[in-house]
Design brief:
single chain; alpha/beta; Rossmann fold; four-stranded parallel β-sheet
Length: 143
């Protein structure tokens, strides 16, 4: 099985997980863990160990974290390495809803490389400024 593991500072990963539950349904292949305010690395790692417990030796993991180099993502990779899963893991920073949603929809696809490329592409494409039409070009508009 392939798992999507969301990790973050604060409540971002659980919040993202909650939105995925709404959009794709509750699934056992989507997991999340966050480093809460005031929590130490040891507490986070202990919680993370419980979260990743269902992941077995032959499974694959796609980890999406909020910040590359941040403690949630770094510790998640260390935990997965300690369980011998790093060779079957792909990791991304800067996770967004479009990125995670794309991964969730295609999580069990046959081609994990294509899945990761699609998720990254969707995440990048969704990041742009929204052009607002404020109606300011209308000559009929009264002040």
């Amino acid at each position: 099985m392939r798992y999507l593991l969301l990790v973050s500072h604060g409540t971002f990963a659980p919040g993202l997980h909650s939105v995925l539950d709404m959009l794709v349904g509750k699934r056992e292949d989507i997991l999340s863990c966050s480093l809460r305010d005031g929590e130490g690395a040891d507490e986070y790692v202990a919680e993370l160990e419980k979260v990743v417990a269902p992941i077995g030796e032959g499974d694959e993991v796609i980890v999406m974290g909020d910040i590359i180099g941040g403690s949630p993502l770094t510790n998640a990779l260390n935990v997965l390495a300690g369980r011998g899963l790093l060779a079957h893991t792909r990791a991304f920073g800067g996770v967004s809803l479009p990125m995670a949603l794309t991964a969730a929809f295609d999580l069990q696809s046959d081609d994990p490389t294509d899945l990761c490329a699609s998720a990254l592409s969707e995440g990048l494409a969704a990041m742009r400024e929204v052009e607002l039409d404020l109606g300011g070009d209308d000559e009929d508009e009264e002040l």
